[in-house]
User: Which sequence fits this backbone?
C-alpha cells in the first residue's frame, strides 16, 4: 500500500499555474487536470470525521477520532450515535443537503469517466480493488444511514450550536453536538443519492446496495406523505443553515433516481408530475433538479422514447446554449453574471452542465466554453489566482479552513469559494469594497465568504477534472 509521509504530501502539481492572460494552453491544462485529480479527491479523505486519520495517510492533517460523542436530538432528551461522514468545509459541521450534492457530483463523475478514478489515492482503502472515489462516497453514505429516522425522514444536520475557534483541530471541538429536525430537502436528497448508489455498488457489495435502495424507498415514502418541512436554525444556533424554501426539485430528483434504480412506472409518473421544465434544471445545494435530469438522461436505464427524457435532453441543450452565449459575451470567459458566496461552485456547475450537454450532443462550442471556465479556475482570471490550494505560487495559502489554520499550512487540493460581491465578512468589507465584483476575493484566513473551502465545491471540481482529463488526454 502506498504510504504518504509528511514530506511527500505536497502534491506533484506544486508549481503549476495557468496564469493571467496566458494563452489557453491545451497541453498544460491537460497535464494539470491529470495531476489534480488525486489531491482534489484526497481532500474528502482528509475531511473524514468520527475516525482517526493516520499520519501514514494524512501527514500533518492526521488526528484522533473526532466528534464521536452521541448527539442530542435538539430540544429532546434523546441521544443518537451519528458519527462519521465528511466535515462540511472549514467548519466541522455535517449537513445532509450539501453532502448529497457532493455525493451526486462524485457518483455522476464516476459514471461518466470511470477510467479517471484510480485505486491509488493513498487512503486506507487504496488497493482494495474498488476505485477510491467509491470508497470515499461509501464512507459518506454510511454516515447518511445514521441520519435517517425509522419512519424514513432524514435529519437536516448534526453540528454544535457555534463554530469553534479558527485554529481548533477536529478533536478540539468538544462542545455539545445536536441533531436538528428532519427537513424534506434533506429527505429528498437522501432518497435520491441512495437510489443513485444502489446500482453502482451492486457488483461491489450486494448487501450494501440493497440497504441503499431500502433506505431510499423509505425516505421516498416519508416524502410522499409529508408536507414541505423547511429548516431554519433555532435561536441560539449559528452553524450553517442550508435553508431551502422549495423542495419540489429534491422530490423530483428522488423520483428520477428511483425510477432509474427500479424501472418502476410509479416513480416515472411522479417524476413527470414533478417536472418543472427549465425551472428545475439547476445544480446547487438548494437546486437539485438538474441532478434529476442528469440521472434520467444518463441511465443506466435508457428511456430514449420517453417524453420526459426527451424534454430533459432538450432542456440540457437549451441551458448549454445559454451558458455559451454568456461565456462568449463575457470578457472573463465565464458564464456567471453575479458573484455569489461560492462563485467558483456556480461556474463549475455550469461547466458540468456543458459537459453533460456534450454527452447528449457532441459540440466543440460546449467544450470550448467548458475549457474557458476551467482555465478561469486555474488562474486565467482578473486576479491571476489559481483557486486550488497547493496548485502553484498564486494559489491560496490562508484558506478559512480549521485543519489548515491548526497545521499552519494549507491542506492541498481544496477549491476556495472565490469572489463574493456581497462582502459577507469583515475582512471582505474592509479590504475589498470599491473593487469590481470579480476581484472581491482575498487570500485571508479571516475571509470565510471568499476563502473558505467545502466538500460540495471540491466535488464539482473533481467531476469536471475527471471528464476533462478524458477529453484533453
Ligand atoms: O438566493 C439568493 C438570491 O435570490 C439573491 O439574488 C442573492 C443576492 O444576495 O443571494 C442569494 O442567497 C445567497 C445564498 O447563499 C444562496 O445562494 C446568499 O446571498 C449567500 O450569503 C448564501 O451563502 C451561503 C453561506 O453558507 C451563508 O449562508 C453559501 O451558499 C454556502 O455555501 C455557505 O455555506 C457555509 C455553511 O453555511 C457553513 N459551512 C461552510 C459553508 C461554506 O462557506
Ligand atoms: O468559520 C465559520 C465558517 O465556517 C462559516 O462558513 C461562516 C458562515 O456561517 O461562519 C464562520 O464563523 C464565523 C462566524 O459566523 C462569525 N464570527 C467569526 C467566525 C469565523 O471565525
Ligand atoms: Zn469530526
Assistant:
Amino acid at each position: 500500500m502506498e504510504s504518504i509521509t509528511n514530506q511527500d504530501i505536497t502534491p506533484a502539481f506544486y508549481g503549476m499555474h495557468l496564469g493571467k492572460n496566458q494563452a489557453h494552453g491545451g497541453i498544460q491544462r491537460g497535464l494539470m487536470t491529470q495531476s489534480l485529480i488525486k489531491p482534489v479527491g484526497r481532500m474528502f479523505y482528509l475531511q473524514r470525521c468520527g475516525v482517526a486519520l493516520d499520519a501514514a495517510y494524512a501527514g500533518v492533517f492526521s488526528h484522533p477520532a473526532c466528534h464521536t460523542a452521541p448527539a442530542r436530538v435538539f430540544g429532546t432528551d434523546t441521544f443518537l450515535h451519528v458519527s462519521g461522514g465528511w466535515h462540511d468545509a472549514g467548519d466541522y459541521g455535517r449537513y445532509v443537503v450539501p453532502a448529497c450534492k457532493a455525493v451526486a457530483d462524485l457518483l455522476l463523475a464516476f459514471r461518466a469517466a470511470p477510467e479517471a478514478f484510480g485505486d491509488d489515492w493513498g487512503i486506507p482503502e487504496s488497493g482494495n480493488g474498488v476505485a477510491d472515489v467509491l470508497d470515499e462516497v461509501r464512507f459518506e453514505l454510511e454516515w447518511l444511514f445514521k441520519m435517517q429516522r425509522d419512519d424514513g425522514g432524514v435529519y437536516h444536520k448534526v453540528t454544535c450550536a457555534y463554530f469553534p475557534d479558527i485554529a481548533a483541530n477536529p478533536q478540539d471541538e468538544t462542545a455539545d453536538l445536536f441533531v436538528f429536525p428532519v427537513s424534506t430537502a434533506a429527505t429528498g436528497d437522501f432518497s435520491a443519492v441512495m437510489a443513485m448508489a444502489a446500482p453502482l455498488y451492486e457488483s461491489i457489495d450486494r448487501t450494501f446496495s440493497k440497504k441503499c435502495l431500502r433506505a431510499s424507498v423509505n425516505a421516498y415514502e416519508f416524502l410522499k406523505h409529508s408536507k414541505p418541512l423547511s429548516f431554519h436554525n433555532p435561536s441560539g444556533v449559528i452553524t450553517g443553515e442550508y435553508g431551502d424554501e422549495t423542495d419540489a426539485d429534491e422530490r423530483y430528483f428522488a423520483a428520477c433516481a428511483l425510477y432509474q434504480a427500479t424501472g418502476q412506472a410509479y416513480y416515472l409518473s411522479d417524476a413527470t408530475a414533478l417536472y418543472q421544465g427549465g425551472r428545475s434544471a439547476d445544480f446547487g445545494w438548494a437546486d437539485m433538479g438538474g441532478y434529476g435530469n442528469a440521472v434520467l438522461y444518463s441511465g443506466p436505464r435508457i428511456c430514449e422514447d420517453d417524453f420526459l427524457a426527451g424534454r430533459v435532453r432538450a432542456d440540457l441543450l437549451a441551458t448549454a446554449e445559454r451558458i455559451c452565449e454568456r461565456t462568449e459575451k463575457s470578457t472573463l470567459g465565464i458564464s456567471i453574471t453575479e458573484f455569489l458566496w461560492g462563485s467558483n461552485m456556480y461556474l463549475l456547475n455550469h461547466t458540468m452542465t456543458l459537459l453533460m450537454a456534450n454527452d447528449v450532443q457532441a459540440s466543440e462550442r460546449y467544450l470550448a466554453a467548458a475549457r474557458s471556465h476551467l482555465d478561469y479556475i486555474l488562474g486565467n482570471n482578473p486576479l491571476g489566482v489559481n483557486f486550488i490550494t497547493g496548485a502553484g505560487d498564486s494559489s491560496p495559502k490562508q484558506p478559512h479552513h480549521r485543519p489548515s489554520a491548526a497545521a499552519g499550512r494549507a491542506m492541498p487540493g481544496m477549491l476556495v469559494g472565490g469572489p463574493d460581491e456581497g462582502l459577507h465578512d469583515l475582512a471582505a468589507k474592509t479590504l475589498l469594497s470599491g473593487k469590481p465584483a470579480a476581484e472581491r476575493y482575498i487570500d485571508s484566513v479571516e475571509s470565510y465568504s471568499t476563502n473558505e473551502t467545502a466538500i460540495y465545491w471540491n466535488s464539482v471540481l473533481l467531476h469536471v477534472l475527471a471528464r476533462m482529463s478524458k477529453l484533453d488526454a
Remarks:
- Residues 120 and 126 are 5 Å apart (CA to CA).
- Residues 49-50, 66-67, 87, 92, 170 surround zinc ion (ligand 3) (CB under 6 Å).
- Residues 307-329 form the longest helix (23 residues).
